[in-house]
Write a structure and sequence with these properties.
This protein is an alpha/beta fold. The protein has helices at 9-32, 40-48, 62-68, 82-93, 107-119, 141-149, 197-223; strands at 34-38, 54-57, 75-78, 97-100, 124-127, 153-160, 163-165, 173-175, 180-185.
Length: 225
């Protein structure tokens, strides 16, 4: 179901109800979490240089990332279908901006909006393997955005000490209340404006490798808890 769901008063009411319930539940859960954070100086250095990050992470860590980076004006892509609508309503309440579209529908429109948002001084957020996977395989969108805007890709990973793991394609992790969450931010990756497709592919491989290292680091941090 894509744009035609908007013609149904019932579907519109359902989207509003899901968002009205989802936001306070995520907000309540987030406030119980204990955070262990490393590498935020990379984000601070990017902004001190007058640039904005293309923040990049895996789709399966959306929930803790949404809470931690709230109220920062980060713009993210959300799809134009029914699920995208209630997701957009929830994250907008957390202070995010939304660019509507996906890799399969309206993607170019959404990417161009992200370019405009970054030119206006706003950060962008990217689930690299979203919206449909395959899991842990980075799609090139974040790197294209970095090449177009001159802003760096900033990889990060989150890992919870105790969590529920959904049986979804991305193995979504939902931290359990009062668990510890390790957030590790890695070194940024720049993509030159004149980078070739081969160089972009090399940057994509490097991005995947860095995210793998960040995951190992986050798990190691939790072992010390």
């Amino acid at each position: 179901m894509t744009g035609n769901w908007r013609l149904s008063p019932l579907k519109r009411a359902q989207a509003a109800a899901i968002a009205a319930l989802g936001y306070p539940l995520i907000n309540l859960l987030g406030h119980t979490l204990r955070w262990r954070v490393e590498g935020m100086d990379h984000l601070e250095a990017i902004r001190a240089a007058g640039r904005q990050p293309v923040m990049a992470f895996w789709h399966g860590r959306i929930l803790p990332a949404t809470f931690y980076f709230r109220r920062r004006g980060i713009v993210v892509i959300t799809s134009e279908n029914f699920d995208g609508e209630w997701i957009a309503r929830i994250i907008e309440r957390f202070g995010y901006g939304t660019a509507r579209g996906s890799s399969s529908r309206g993607g170019l429109k959404a990417m161009l909006q992200l370019v405009r948002n970054m030119q206006q001084g706003r950060a962008a957020g990217f689930t690299l393997d979203g919206p449909r996977g395959p899991a842990r395989v980075a799609q090139p969108g974040a790197l294209w955005l970095a090449r177009t805007t001159g802003n760096p890709v900033l990889p990060f990973h989150l890992e919870a000490s105790r969590s529920w793991m959904l049986r979804s394609w991305d193995r979504t992790q939902i931290p359990k209340p009062f668990s510890d969450v390790a957030l590790v931010v890695g070194e940024p990756i720049d993509v030159a404006a004149h980078a070739t497709d081969e160089q972009v592919e090399q940057a994509r491989d490097e991005l995947e490798a860095r995210l793998g290292a960040l995951e190992k680091r986050a798990i190691a941090m939790l072992r010390r808890v």
